[in-house]
Amino acid sequence: MTKKPDRITAMQQIIDAVKEEFPIYQEDTFTCGPDNSCTGCPKKLMELVDSELTYWQHAINSGETPTFDELNSFGKMCKNIRRSLVRNNRISS
To answer: What was the pLDDT predicted at 86?
Structure first.
């Protein structure tokens, strides 16, 4: 039987997965598409993800432990943004 990760480890796993999958630090990430026909602005969504990642990485490094609600909220936000990025062909499904 595997042991569930503590809240800090769980948050770090979410952060690592988002950094690996989302095109956060690619050159064209923070630019709008040529025809501005986006479904949910990927530029704004990536700015939101970047700020949340930076906040949580700093909080974890400072020893702050996220609550279960914060874990759930951050995970849900990342899941919804991933769905939008797939719709806008920024990442594959």
So the answer is: 86
